[in-house]
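Q: I have 486 residues here and want to know how they pack in 3D. Can you give me a structure?
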Amino acid sequence: MWKKGEIMMKEKSNCYFLTIVLGLLLSATMFVNQGAKAAINWGTAVNITGAGQVVDSITVNGKTVQALYAPRNSVANYDGNETYSCAAFVKRFYSEVFGIGINNLYPGNTPNIYSGSGQFSKTSSPKVGDIAANSGHWAIVKAVNGNSVTLIEQNAWNTAYTAAMVGRILTSESSYWFWRWSGNNASVTEPQIGYNPEGNLESIEGGLNGASIRGWVFDRDSLSSSVPIHVYMDGVYAGAGVADKKRADVNNAHGCGEYHGFDFKLPIKSSGTHAFEVYAINIGADGQPSGQGNLLMGGTSVSIVVDETPPVISDVRILDLDSSGYTIECKATDNRGIDRVQCPTWTVANGQDDLQKDWWTDTSVKATDKGNGVFQFRVNISEHNSERGLYITHIYAYDEAGNYAVHKVEDVEVLEDSGTIAPGDINQDGKIDGKDISMLLQYRLKKRELTEEQIADGDVYKDGKIDGKDVSRLLQYRLGKISSLN
């Protein structure tokens, strides 16, 4: 009986399900102790996402053979397939490494050589390149370490038939026996055994526009490297992170170095409840993915709420314009709430040499929340090389989901304080032109503010207010319809 919590791996060979029946497997030539209980380390689950996916490899006598998989339900008669079945891998290995053709890989049979010479016999001392078999599954011995035998195989699945079990290890209590070809002179030409990742998936939390994933993992093959993290949602690859965050507690417990934590948010564009699985990618001594032994750290189902509605920016005004700068005011609203309003600003002179670095998060350009959705930001020329002339401010409103809206405020002119202002010369540049008319119109439409001196200059009728008559008279003067504003 399987222990609670133990993975019941599903294996098939040709048309046969693997069935572990100890009473049928006891033999004087088996690599087991008579009457002992089966003990197998089922290895690491590697999610299968496409045809021809390589999950493991072995290099013997200079020849490399790969274990291949395809999604289980995408191949008709997977157990008898000449590419993906367990027997197909054993045949391919012997053909490519030793140059012989074998068949008769059925339960209880001795492998047969139909092309080439030599013979197979059982052995109780397996070595690299031997065939491992039980009542219905075939594999190749990849490594031997004392009483532990590591297999390389195909068609070895988790219970859901979604992930290959890679790096399975048999112990001296296992239920397999071994066949050796008389010509087996296997010489492993590259290291086959390394460390698998070690870690802990601490949490997967759903929420707004994504899933937050936290934990730690390291690989003793390269403790100076950061282990890649791959995330699958509903069985499909959804994104990645990396374990490079500081975790002093992990180092204190495992002596692996401090920077092996991960804590990232994976953007998701589909609302609803989704099943997530998190994998740590096995790396070698060079810090690069080894292509095998990836660690399924865990998984769970969480709810995701997607919000793609951006904020709305309205009621933009220019206030307190004077020789020292100006104030931007706006209203920003959102269906879930405004996170921040940023006001990056630069002058037309000398390009964007005065634009703040990282303006989208820089608190120096963050507008002040005045309440009721109103935000203000003061632009001071002292923060822009004291340059005068035309200024440009872009207003960015961000919501809590990361959506944003932008409103561009251009051609705000900051000039010297000239003392006496000529009537109609609202921008104080010594002439009356379209810019003055534009400023007066913006003031009338409550799109900007003017200083007291500019208001006095715009009141060309001298009746103590600015209205349509002032705009009309200034326009007539500009078009040459009248010769004087007095």
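Q: Anything worth noting?
A: Helices lie at 22-25, 86-98, 248-254, 434-444, 452-458, 468-478. The CA atoms of residues 127 and 144 lie 6 Å apart.
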